[in-house]
Structures are given as structure tokens and as C-alpha cells.
Design a protein that fits this description.
6-stranded mixed beta sheet; 12 strands; DNA-binding
DNA sequence: CTGAAAGCGCTTACAG
DNA sequence: CTGAAAGCGCTTACAG
């Protein structure tokens, strides 16, 4: 049962004026008699008239709405990003349509399609961990619909991006473990499909090689972002003939999975294994021991993505892709700090 | 720069048919020549035609869209509820517009207004912790726009609701502490404005009175759902001349704040104070000690709210408010289990 | 089987 | 200052 909302026509009929006059009165346009305007505005208030946005958007060919697709709204990282996105969007007079892909390529694709039909003026997307084809994005680009990638991006897409320097951040985290005496450092690297994973892997390798350490493929564990995966992969790592004495986890959720495994197996942190992760969720400092983690300025990143997108929407000039790289900060806590035997 | 999407008119022009024919061909209506249909469908695919949903919604006076307002998308509880809502909505052919009030009454109000203008066919709302006026909801009801309240509801609104038995759940949690030897039980009760808060308070009082214990107002701490509030209130409770030996926190986030305070002050859980909370977030079992918590079937509750709403949207009959109460389960972990001296 | 026309609720030149 | 008309992209009786 659709409700029967008040329309401009109802107001016009009741006041014996044309709909054009009502429209002008309600939108503060000039060239309208003060008395007419007052009458219209009062009746609109009395009847709680709300303009039908479908109609105005259709006629103006503008929705002032941007579509957002993140893998999971419940992740701390994305919910903070969305805070930044909404803030910047509202400040610029835009609405935000939030959707999640649930890490599914198929869902990402249908979300793109649904939002396109709904006439969003642009997209901010963080790729699902399954996404390895990009045709749905190329279609957007061909149609001239602005797109900004956020956090999880792909080099196959020539669009604006907002990211951190993943390689450098992972190298710093790994170096930190080396400085704390680790010599066999494993990594819970994340999904193999994401380019962010490979950037972090490069940083991990950089740090090991700087220190003359070999890269042991057995210490590199790819997997999805679920806690279950972290638990299983950590078990496998600790079952190695030479288990690791340090672990880089590319998200706090993975780190928590690893910690559960360590606890179950009686492995002490940081004495037996030192641990550092990414995202610096509030939970990091509440765990025992508190977790060292790479902090990202995620709200700012959300704002930046929105500003890039809106600039693109409002610019007549052809799009010039721009990548904004944000600084990170390694927050050191007890999970990675050890008494290091001073050598040499 | 709005993109210039392909329209039905473009297809019609190129194929030398009328827009009506194109429209019929694309929607699998009968009474159309197979050849015509094939030509239209092929061209639409080739040009990646996407129907403009603003136009179809306008003409059909239906958006098949429901609006959702939750206090915070990042809370585990709400992100799970949204999973249930999206699942049920999509199964019924509806889209979901997600918004958050950020616990702000003002924001809740503008979200209602924006979504109304956007012509959602109904609302699922969980009240902000600030909400103590209900005129924005009464307006919806007067307009005949279906509304279902979820979790945080108010007795002032005669609409369908999906809730747990908060009184019974809080009583059970409190009894559990009593059985574990607590005799001075405090409660982090949540925001004073929410009726859910008062229901839980009633349950807390029930359990104390059953056991012949007095209700000490000094042990009842109202406050918002922030961790900061929990930390401060817990400090105040522990500063009492006779501090509590048990604590009921009405959410895991509050419990975590309390735990931080206990740790800082060297108070042991459960030896010095036993702790039980609500929501049973995954983090509960990872804390040390693992946290006892009241589990709610939140995805199911989201599904139920959606089904109630859609039934209302699609029914011609006048709305009969229906309240669905879901069962809870107290998950007992180490934070509340003590060796109790057997008496008598 | 197909097209012309009216209409969804609004905005926007254009006359007067 | 106000109204009639056209139009946004689509759907839906109604003729033919």
C-alpha cells in the first residue's frame, strides 16, 4: 500500500494557483508576490509537503547522490571510512548510498548495476577480496561515470585512488619485528587477488632482504580476511619444523585469530612469537597483550575519496586520475616488544 | 558532469520503432513479435542499456525500497541486523537504503526526511540514544508510511516491533551473578532515554528482590553507549565506600570499558568482581577473561523486522501493530564464574 | 503486433 | 508577478 503523499498539484489546486507558481514559491525563486509565497509556504508546512525527489532528480538529470561499495560495513576500517565519506558528502550537499559486497564479486557487480540504475552520479569502491575481473568497472568508465577506488584498488583500473603506502608500511612493521630480535618472520598476507596484498608482501620482503635474511615461502600465508582463515593458517605456520618467531598480520582481525591459536597452543606473546598487525582498531589495545598495529588515517581517507569524486562529478574537463597516498603510523604495544640480547 | 546514459528513446530511434514497443520488449510482455523483441534486446545489451529507475519508480509510484536507520553501522549488533535485513529484503525483491543516526536525534530526523523525499516505501528504525520526542515518527504514521521499530523502541509509538524480552534477559544475567556469590551487583544501564534501558532495569531489580536484596541507587549507572562513559562510570562505582562485587553491563562495548578500568586498578575478574554483559559479540570470547554475555538472534531479528515491514507495505488492510519477541541465551564464560562457598 | 497519447511529479523557458 | 506548455524517461490503457 503506497502512501498518498501531498504533491505540488494538491497545493496548487487548493490555493487556486498554477503548479509553476507553487514550485517557484517553495524554492525561493525571485519574481513571486510575497503574499502568494507566504500562502504556499504555509500550506506546504501545514500539510507537511515533501518534494518528490524522484521527480526533481529526473527533471534536473541530477541526483546529487554517490554510491559506496565496501566489502563489509561491519569492519571497523570501513565504518570509519564511511564516517569520513558521509561527512564530506553532506558538506558538499550530496547524499550517500551505502552498500556492501560481502566480499563477493557477484554482489559487487549487482551493486554497481543497481546503483547505476538508481542514477548515482559516481562511485567510491573498495574491491571485494574475490574481484579479479574488472569489466563492471570498465563499463562505468566508458559511460563516463566517475569512480574512485579506496584502500583495495587494482592497477588495472586507471582511476583516482586513495591509499596508504602499503609497501612502506609493511616494511616498517617487519623491520620493527627484526629490531625486536625476530629472525624467522611469517606473514598472514591476506587474499592473493588484491594488489594491496602484493604491495605489503613487497615491503615484507624488502625488510628481510635489507637484513640479509632469506625469504622462506613456507612463512608466507595467503588467505581471506576471516578469523577462521587466520586460525588455520597460524596453526600451519606453528606446525612447521622451524616455526616462526615473529608474525605480521595484515589486519587486526587476522591478528586476533592468530592470538587465539597461540593461546590454545600455549605459545607466549611476545616471548615465543612477536606480533604486529594493521588497522589499529580500538580493540587492539584491549587485547592481552595489547597489539602493535599500523594506524591509518581512515576517516581522512574517506573524506579525501569523496572530495576527489565530487570534484570529478562537478568538473567538465576530462578525468585525470589522481592517487592520494596517506601516511601511516606504527603504534607499538606489548605484543611486539621484547628484551633483545645486545649483540656485537 | 552527468553522464549521458542510453535511454529507451535512443533504442527506439535506432530501431525505427516506438518507445512503447521497446518498453514492452525489454520487460518480456506478451504481444510482441519475436523478431522485434530480439532486435531490441540485442541492441540494449550491446549498448548496455540500464533502465532509469527514477522514471520507472515515478510512473509506477513504487520504489520497492525500504529505508533503515540505525544508531551506528559500525556496531556489531547493527551490522549483523543489517545482514538479516538485506537478505530478507532482496529475497522479496526490495532494495535497502542504509543510514545511521550517529546516536543523534537531529540526524535521525533529517534521515527520516531525506528518505521520505526519496520515496522509500517504509522504515526500519532503531532509535538514537538521544531520541525522546517522536513527532517525526508520528508524521510517518499519519502519512500511512509503514514503520517497524527494531531493538531500541518506544512505548509511545504504536507500531510493529522486533525485540527481545529485555526484562527477562537482564533478570537472568543478574540471577547468574547472584548464583556466583555476588551480593552487591551494579549495573551499567545505558541511556536513560531508551525504554529498553528501563526494561533491563526492571529485570535487574526483579532478580535482586527475589533474593531479598535491596536496590541501592548508588549501584545504578546510566550513561551513553560509549566506552568512555563506561570507563568513567565504572571508576565511580569502584570508588564507592562499598564497591560492587558484580556488574551487569548492557553491552559488550560497555563491558570492555569496565574491564579496562578494572585492569588499570588491579581489580581481578571474576575474583573481585564478576561481570556479565549483553550482545555476545565475537570479541567477547577473545577478551581475558572471556566475557559472559547475553546472545540475541540478531540476524533473525533483522529478517523478522523486514518481513513485518514488507507485509505491511504490501497489505491493503489497515496496519495492526505486532510485536515479535525473540529468545535470548546467556553464554557463560570465565568473567562470571566463581567458586562459591556452599552455604547452608 | 505496434504506435500515439496521456501521465507520474516536478522544473524551466517563454508569453503575457 | 503568473500561467500554459514542454519535457525529464518511463509505463499503460486504448486504437488500429
Amino acid at each position: 500500500m503506497r502512501s498518498n503523499q501531498v504533491t505540488i498539484k494538491d497545493l496548487a489546486r487548493h490555493l487556486n494557483v498554477s503548479v509553476a507558481t507553487v514550485s517557484r514559491a517553495l524554492r525561493d525563486l525571485p519574481d513571486i508576490h510575497p503574499d502568494t509565497k507566504r500562502a504556499v509556504v504555509e500550506l506546504a508546512a501545514a500539510w507537511d509537503y515533501q518534494p518528490n525527489q524522484l521527480a526533481t532528480s529526473l527533471v534536473k538529470n541530477r541526483t546529487r547522490t554517490i554510491g559506496v561499495i565496501v566489502p563489509n560495513l561491519g569492519y571497523y576500517f570501513f565504518s570509519m571510512a564511511i564516517r569520513g565519506i558521509e561527512e564530506a558528502a553532506h558538506a558538499a550537499g550530496y547524499s550517500v548510498l551505502l552498500t556492501q559486497s560481502n566480499e563477493s564479486y557477484q554482489r559487487e557487480l549487482t551493486n554497481i548495476q543497481d546503483l547505476t540504475r538508481g542514477q548515482v552520479e559516481g562511485f567510491i569502491v573498495s574491491l571485494s577480496q574475490e574481484t579479479s575481473q574488472y569489466e563492471h568497472f570498465h563499463r562505468l568508465i566508458r559511460k563516463g561515470i566517475p569512480l574512485v577506488l579506496f584502500d583495495r584498488e587494482s592497477p588495472e583500473l586507471q582511476v583516482s585512488k586513495v591509499v596508504i603506502d602499503n609497501r612502506q608500511a609493511a616494511a616498517q612493521a617487519t623491520r620493527h619485528l627484526l629490531e625486536n630480535g625476530c629472525r624467522r618472520i611469517a606473514i598472514l598476507a591476506g587474499p592473493d587477488y588484491l594488489s594491496l596484498t602484493h604491495q605489503r608482501m613487497s615491503g615484507y620482503c624488502d625488510a628481510l632482504q635489507e637484513n640479509g635474511l632469506e625469504i622462506d615461502p613456507a612463512l608466507i600465508a595467503y588467505g581471506d580476511y576471516s578469523q577462521r582463515a587466520a586460525i588455520e593458517l597460524t596453526d600451519e605456520l606453528m606446525n612447521l619444523p622451524e616455526p616462526p618467531d615473529g608474525l605480521v598480520a595484515v589486519s587486526d582481525r587476522l591478528a586476533v585469530g592468530a592470538m587465539m591459536t597461540f593461546r590454545r597452543r600455549g605459545i607466549r606473546i611476545p616471548e615465543d612469537i612477536a606480533l604486529v598487525s594493521f588497522n589499529n582498531e580500538p580493540v587492539s589495545e584491549l587485547l592481552s597483550p595489547p597489539l602493535s598495529s599500523v594506524a591509518q588515517p581512515v576517516m581522512e581517507m574517506g573524506r579525501a575519496a569523496t572530495e576527489l569524486l565530487i570534484r570529478q562529478i562537478e568538473s567538465a574537463a576530462p578525468m585525470v586520475p589522481e592517487t592520494r597516498v596517506f601516511p601511516t603510523q606504527l603504534v607499538v604495544r606489548a605484543s611486539s616488544v621484547r628484551q633483545v640480547a645486545v649483540t656485537g
